[in-house]
TrEMBL record:
Organism: Durusdinium trenchii
Coiled-coil positions: none
Keywords: Cell projection, Cilium, Cilium biogenesis/degradation, Cytoplasm, Cytoskeleton, Repeat, WD repeat
Subcellular location: Cytoplasm, Cytoskeleton, Cilium basal body
Residue stretches making up the IFT121-like TPR repeats domain: 242-340
Protein name as it appears in the record: WD repeat-containing protein 35
Lineage of the organism: Eukaryota, Sar, Alveolata, Dinophyceae, Suessiales
Length: 439
């Protein structure tokens, strides 16, 4: 975001959240945190755009109405997936929309019970929208805060609403906002920073639990229990569950493109086929047009036709593009039968069934194969039955593991590299040889 908008981004860890977990959060403490951050900012208030997501929308509106009381204002406000008030958002989670009266009754009851945790955005939107530009973004498939609440808020404040065909946490990933095609390298870097932060946060949570629970000694059983609970307590969000996925997706996308432009068509195909595992991060057209192109170059017409089926059936591809893909598919497959050529077979690391060296999952046991972050190829164990060594570029062989991101790569691919291709941290190649065993 920084470069295209020429702005700096500051994110806040509210008291009681993230690294600032030494106090109990309240509406007042969260508002105070925003105002303190604004006071600390290098820019004047008039230059700052406040962006709140979910609960942050309530905090942002409360903080800005407080700011207005003192005669100051900001440059603008973005509300991403906002609610009318916290009790109303909570009641919508448990009551079907078909029972509006019951929902209203429940939200009034919750408002009484929740005391000073109200975040009554509905009562503040008009006041704030009068003094500064406000924009609302909301996913139509949001299951945490219903889309109708964002819509209602936009009507009340007469502010623009932008809707997206996605859920609560996915607006930032929408292609029209993310610019994924234009700046994949920047987005990979952002995901990498996020992944490293999540790792740091996980280690911190774990450390705190270990020290808190033990006072010096801990049995193996307690240690295990603590690890299990820790994992559950930080795994509610998919990003925390697997912080590296976003980084992997953009890394693979960039790698496949580089291989394609360097004329390594077979490698580019093996790498791009792997993108189908990242449909939650990259959009259909980005993934499957690259797969269609690389499989076409390699005459893998069965894989190619599967990619075209995805492109023609996807609702997030525009009608115009879908028609173009359908015409292109027709001209390709009237001349070429949808069949793949024979390829080198290697044993699945889990069940031993021999599968194509370009497979990303085992066709027999469904095991998801780990991949080499340097070449994009699936990682196979040493093939003891092979009478001669692996042909170059097919897979198999010795691997090493990066100490920082814990991803693996074939040692013969990284002989000349000093840094991990995925996380860019320094590789200690001599110390890291590990046998090529199942992940
Ligand atoms: Zn298998
Ligand atoms: Zn790494």
């Amino acid at each position: 975001m920084q470069e295209p908008l020429c702005c700096e981004v500051t994110a806040i860890d509210y008291c009681g959240c993230g690294y600032s977990d030494f106090c109990r959060p309240t509406e007042a403490s969260a508002v105070a945190d925003v105002l303190a951050t604004l006071d600390q900012a290098d820019a004047s208030f008039e230059e700052v755009i406040v962006w709140g997501h979910s609960l942050g929308t309530g905090i942002a509106l409360s903080a800005l109405s407080k700011l207005l009381e003192s005669g100051r204002r900001c440059k603008g406000l973005v509300l991403e997936a906002p609610f009318l008030s916290l009790p109303r958002a909570a009641s919508a989670l448990v009551t079907p929309a078909a029972w509006p009266d019951f929902r209203e009754g429940l939200s009034r009851r919750l408002a009484r019970i929740m005391g000073h945790l109200q975040f009554d955005s509905a009562s503040k939107i008009c006041l704030v929208a009068e003094k500064m530009p406000v924009t609302i973004l909301h996913g139509t498939q949001d299951t945490k805060v219903p889309f109708e609440q964002g819509q209602r808020l936009s009507e009340m404040g007469a502010v623009p609403l932008h809707s997206f065909p996605c859920g609560h946490n996915d607006i930032a990933k929408q292609p029209q906002l993310s610019g994924a095609q234009r700046h994949p390298d920047r987005i990979k870097r952002l995901y990498l920073l996020a992944a490293l932060e999540v790792e740091k946060f996980k280690n911190k949570t774990l450390d705190a639990q270990m020290t808190g629970a033990t006072q010096g000694t801990m049995t193996t059983a307690q240690t295990l229990q603590s690890l299990v609970t820790q994992d559950q307590s930080v795994s509610s969000d998919r990003a925390l569950e697997s912080p590296w996925r976003g980084c992997e997706a953009f890394h693979i996308y960039l790698l496949a493109q580089r291989q394609l432009y360097e004329g390594q068509h077979e490698q580019a195909m093996k790498t791009s086929l792997r993108l189908s595992e990242y449909e939650d991060i990259l959009d259909t057209q980005t993934i499957y047009s690259l797969i269609a192109l690389t499989t076409y170059y390699n005459k893998f017409f069965a894989q190619c036709s599967r990619a075209f089926i995805k492109l023609e059936a996807s609702s997030d591809v525009s009608d115009e593009m879908r028609t173009k893909f359908a015409d292109l598919a027709l001209s390709i497959f009237t001349r070429n039968a949808p069949r793949d050529p024979a390829s080198h077979m290697l044993p699945c690391p889990k069940c031993g069934t021999r599968i194509n060296d370009w497979n990303i999952t085992c066709s027999s046991c469904n095991h998801r194969l780990a991949f080499c972050v340097a070449s994009g190829r699936s990682i196979f164990p040493e093939d003891r039955n092979a009478s001669h060594p692996y042909p170059p570029g097919t897979g198999g062989g010795e691997t090493i593991k990066c100490r920082c991101c814990r991803h693996r790569m074939y040692s013969n691919e990284v002989r000349k590299l000093r840094n991990c291709p995925l996380c860019h941290s320094r590789l200690d190649v001599t110390a890291m040889h590990t046998p090529s065993v199942p992940h």
